[in-house]
TrEMBL record:
InterPro entries documented for this protein: AAA+_ATPase, ABC_transporter-like_ATP-bd, ABC_transporter-like_CS, ABC_transporter_ATP-binding, P-loop_NTPase
Xref: Gene3D superfamilies: P-loop containing nucleotide triphosphate hydrolases
Keyword ATP-binding carried by entry: yes
Name by which UniProt lists this protein: ABC transporter ATP-binding protein
Pfam families: ABC_tran
Keywords carried by this UniProt record: ATP-binding, Nucleotide-binding, Transport
MF term (GO), any: ATP hydrolysis activity
The keyword Protein transport belongs to this UniProt entry's keyword annotation: no
PROSITE patterns: ABC_TRANSPORTER_1 (PS00211), ABC_TRANSPORTER_2 (PS50893)
Amino acid sequence: MQPILSISGVEKRYDSGLTALGGIDLEVRRGEIFALLGPNGAGKTTLISIICGTVTMSSGRVLVGGHDIVRDFRAARSIIGLVPQEIALDIFSTVWNTVRFSRGLFGRSPDPAYLEQLLRDLSLWDKRDSKVIELSGGMKRRVMIAKALSHEPELLFLDEPTAGVDVNLRRDMWAVVRRLRDKGVTIVLTTHYIEEAEEMADRVGVIDHGRVLLVEDIATLMEKMGKRRLTLTLQHPMAAIPAELAAWPLELAADGHQILYTFDARADATGMPALLKRLGELGIDFKDLDTERSSLEEIFISLVERA
């Protein structure tokens, strides 16, 4: 199946000499949720702005739904929805008029039934006659999403969509994102809440200093780069790791009350059974044992630091 978004050799250089993007190659599949992660200044917003036509690339090619964003701008832009970081709305317009006007900007014929369902899905229907200035910050964010979806785009960009919103609203917004994906909308999101990307995304791309470091399915990435950590809570604290345990890369934590052992869960021999046996031989008793896997955040940090 042809990808809905194809990016080839995209560069962005400024007259000052700054290279914001240095040869980006990336494809986004139809119907997926793709998370684009990177530290501040990595080039995420610049790349999205190029795709959406608000920033001009220095070189490269971008196809959206098979349409070249330069040669066939109107067709490409018509299937894109964008929710930027900044809230940009006519504060004296009503919610209904804001969304209706946005649909008209894309040349779509009036469809009150679609707009009503859209506002209901976003819990905005009861606010349809309210002016934007009367809404809370979270509700304004929902109006931004409604605007972006008003012309029924196939590809939706969410640039830090939950920044500054409370936990309940964040959960509601992700429920909306899932419903959109179920309806066939492809979603590309950037977020500082990496645990959300881990929960929501099908694939993740990591970008830093204007270059893509990695693109991978979430499950594959966690399997390939993830580690597991064994935490042993001791009956009695210790001041240092005994020399007899030097064969294992152990750390003390919690003021000597815990021993941490990090290992590769994919390895044929993790070393964990031998470690527990050796602890018993040395008379080191523990009252609790817990294992956990690396989070996407830990993998992300290691990738960026390595780069």
